[in-house]
Write a structure and sequence with these properties.
single chain; 290 residues; mainly alpha; Tetracycline Repressor, domain 2; Four Helix Bundle (Hemerythrin (Met), subunit A); 2 domains; globular; Prenyltransferase; transmembrane; 4-hydroxybenzoate polyprenyltransferase activity; transferase; cell inner membrane
Length: 290
Amino acid sequence: MFKKVRIFLEMIKIEHTLFALPFAFMGAILGAMVMDNRFPTLAEWGWILMAMVGARSAAMALNRLIDAAIDAKNPRTANRAIPAGLLKAGEVILFTAVSFGLLFWAAANLQPLAVYLLPIAVFMLVFYSFTKRFTWLCHFILGLTIALAPLGGWVAVTNEINWTSIIFYLAVACWTTGFDVIYACQDYEFDRKEGLKSIPARFGIAKALWIARGFHIVTAIGFLLLLFVTQLSWWYIIGTVIASGLLIYEHMLVKPYDLSRTDTAFFTLNGILSIVVFGFTLLDLVVLGS
């Protein structure tokens, strides 16, 4: 049983929840402070955490299920749980249903708008896995999907969407898009061979890396704009400077002729970045609140 649990956790890359979870919490704390001048309650933190676990687990399981045939052909992904025969399709479908159930349960215990927007979230979580079959904009669609985490955190405590939340949403969407473009460079040859759509397959690796830089510049601008539309101040500025430095370093690690450090750029640095931005945002608001 424990071995099966480990396989499921490996399939959904549970450790990579760190990518989006800090931004979901940041959306919650920003929304609560901007709209109501308060901190989220302990219950709100807990339900947001459960919603995030449910949403990410469902999304990753669906992605692995939908892409199983493609993964089996790709040497980089052939050892994933489904193509390797470690999990059956029925098991993954059941896991996905339970994960969506957790998401629905958590949303029902948050603000009403969180429930009303669930159909959109579920559609995006399902839809993005199909997009690389017909558009090289698949990376941006993934970005818009992952960025539902901070937007969802905001909605969960405020019951509304405003321009501040949209700025934050688009900043995180562009951040995700940029690092997904970098990650997709590893599959440049495979995607072209199989007729799959991606920015690297469409424009080449060198141009794709420049496009990724462009998305991350927009991310930095978006984070900066938050300074002018919220109560955030110096501690947040320090966090955004560190985050911008991490983005610069991320792009220094990958080159068109050397993608060997892609995992460090993709996993390690982006996990650190989201924690840094959230941590300094929290510190800023705690200092402000005191």
